[in-house]
């Protein structure tokens, strides 16, 4: 399992990328939008961008892309387990998050995006380092 992530400075741009069935993506599926003040990724990320304007945070969204090796498939439950583990590892427990699946060249991969702004303190959470290789202890399929 390969996971890589980085902070983003444009919520609207990231929302368009995640929702697009372009750039070689055969499909795009939003499977979770948790904790945001909207029920669609475009408005949710635009609101995060507005919220960041009241802070000193220049990159209010943290985006992680997760891929499995070619030929390896995970169940929906296993993907959810991976997302939860990465969230905990980064220190974003309970922060608003979006999960989107892209299908590209017949291979499914997952995108996870978190709002870095803590709504209570109005400070950005700093992510802990993300391991390049996620651990393999997934629930059985």
Keywords for this entry:
141 residues; 3 helices
Q: State the helix count.
A: 3
The arrangement of helices and strands along the chain is EHEHEHEE
Task: State the helical fraction.
Answer: 25-40%
Which of globular, elongated, flat, extended, rod-shaped describes the shape?
A: globular
Low-confidence stretches: 132-138
Walkthrough of the structure:
- There is one protein chain.
- By secondary structure, the chain is an alpha+beta fold.
- Helix content is 26%, strand content 29%.
- The protein contains three helices and five strands.
- It has a five-stranded antiparallel beta sheet with strand order 1-3-5-4-2, with helices on one face.
- The longest helix is centred in the middle third of the chain and has 15 residues, at 76-90.
In short:
The chain is an alpha+beta fold and 141 residues long. It has helices at 11-19, 41-52, 76-90, and strands at 2-8, 25-34, 61-67, 97-104, 107-115.
How is the topology of this model organized?
Elements: E1 2-8, H1 11-19, E2 25-34, H2 41-52, E3 61-67, H3 76-90, E4 97-104, E5 107-115
Helix pairs in contact: 1-2
